[in-house]
Amino acid sequence: MKVLGVIPARWGSTRFPGKSLHPIAEKPLVQWVWERASQARALDEVVVATDDERIQRAVEGFGGTVVMTRADHPSGTDRVAEVAGALGGDVVINVQGDEPLIDPDLIDRLAGFLTDEPGWNMATAATPFQSLEQVLEPGAVKVVFGEQDRALYFSRSVIPHDRDGDFLSAANYWRHLGIYAYQRTFLEKLVEAPPCPLEQAEKLEQLRALHLGCRMKIVRTLDTGVGVDAPEDVPRAEEALREAGLLGM
């Protein structure tokens, strides 16, 4: 069973154009992600998927593998699906290109659920919130899950709602981390389906998967992740890399 890791990278980020190549402690962001993903033991191959020649040259320059894709993909998931179709792979891991501290062990755990328990269509990750301020932030996606940690719903709203006022503690809420593992057959089904109304309302693509009946495993982790969504996130990412002892590597 082949497990393929794909890092989608594009130039035209709305909030941070060119962020894939922005230097984080003297390395382009995409290089940090590629190096961390390459440490995952479960991945048979790690590739960067892009439609931009500048990113292609940079990835080849640091010794990474890059696959050029079509330029008209509406999402990173569609880009990942194109690469999976070209390279094969029974299980496909979509590694977000803006997470320079992505945990290789988390990648291994996600892959393991799909290779060892093929009844799961997808797997993704969640971590407890650290503060109520984070819980109330619409940009922080909340997830609720049920038996066997199967995803029930994702929302930008606070879910579950605390009707009686005795549940609202940060530790009771789970923040979704945007890394996905797919059975390739389900990934193909996902990108062929149109957006559903819930996805359009919340602007959360994973709701399309649930709409299609996906059995999605939530993998619990204490890893909070360090996303680089805007230029002001760069110093925070560099400090996190320094604290993790990764600078100079």
What's this model, at a glance?
The chain starts with a strand and ends in a 6-residue tail after the last helix.
- CATH homologous superfamily title: Spore Coat Polysaccharide Biosynthesis Protein SpsA, Chain A
CATH topology annotation: Spore Coat Polysaccharide Biosynthesis Protein SpsA, Chain A
Q: Biggest sheet, open or closed, and with what strands and sense?
A: 9 strands, mixed
What is the total tally of β strands?
A: 11
CATH architecture: Alpha-Beta Complex
Task: Please write out the topology.
Blueprint (H helix, E strand, L loop, with lengths): L2 E6 L14 E2 L2 E2 H9 L7 E6 L2 H9 L4 E3 L7 H12 L3 E4 L9 H13 L5 E7 L3 H4 L6 E4 L5 E5 L18 E10 H9 L4 H6 L3 H6 L4 E5 L13 H10 L6
Helix pairs in contact: 3-6
Can you offer a commentary on this structure?
With 249 residues, the protein is α/β, with parallel strands linked by helices. It has a single domain, classed as Spore Coat Polysaccharide Biosynthesis Protein SpsA, Chain A (Alpha-Beta Complex). The protein contains nine helices and eleven strands. The radius of gyration is 18 Å and the shape is globular. It starts with a strand and ends in a 6-residue tail after the last helix.
Write a concise keyword list for the protein shown above.
alpha/beta, Spore Coat Polysaccharide Biosynthesis Protein SpsA, Chain A, 9 helices, two-stranded antiparallel ribbon
